[in-house]
UniProtKB/TrEMBL annotation:
Residues 18-140 form the TNase-like domain. One of its GO terms (molecular function) is hydrolase activity. SUPFAM superfamilies: Staphylococcal nuclease (SSF50199). This is Endonuclease YncB(Thermonuclease family).
Length: 158
């Protein structure tokens, strides 16, 4: 009986959605920032399911400004999805209960849907619509995805 209760506890706690809340104190780029939680702990957060232009790419500064104007010195809620290899929390950023910042960046043409990590139909649709409207990065003739840009730069460094 004890094992069944223990098993159910782990099943239900692993299924429960985890959220962290904190004030954004630093924006590194369009899809990464640092929050300070209620325990005064600094937590680096990477946005789930999207990828913004890297520093040095077109629209990187615009994406960072977009994120900064909506988050810096404000409290946000992060729907935690995982942690990445750098120890950052990866999550969906909620500005309020109905406003998904990850989705706003896609709609503004300032991020790519990142299908390697997310299968969100809503995110994919937002990117397709921004492309059709030729908004920001999609106004360019041949925009380079951030993951391709990183890969090319890593090869140059080696």
């Amino acid at each position: 009986m004890f094992l069944i209760v223990l098993f159910l506890f782990f099943v239900f706690t692993s299924v429960a959605q985890q959220y962290i809340e904190g004030c954004v104190v630093r924006v590194a780029d369009g899809d990464t920032f640092t929050i300070v939680d209620k325990y005064r702990k600094k937590i680096r957060v990477r946005f789930f399911g999207i990828d913004c232009s890297e520093i040095g790419q077109d629209y990187a500064h615009t994406a960072k400004s977009f994120t900064s104007s909506r988050t810096l010195n404000k409290t946000v809620k992060v729907e935690v999805k995982s942690k990445d290899r750098y120890g950052r929390v990866v999550g969906v950023i909620w500005l309020d209960p109905k406003t998904d910042l990850n989705l706003l960046l896609l709609r503004a043409g300032l991020a790519w849907d990142y299908p390697s990590y997310s299968k969100s139909r809503e995110y994919h649709k937002a990117e397709v619509e921004a492309r059709a409207l030729k908004v920001n990065i999609w106004s360019q003739k041949s925009p380079i995805a951030p993951w391709d840009y990183r890969k090319a730069n890593n090869k140059k460094k080696k």
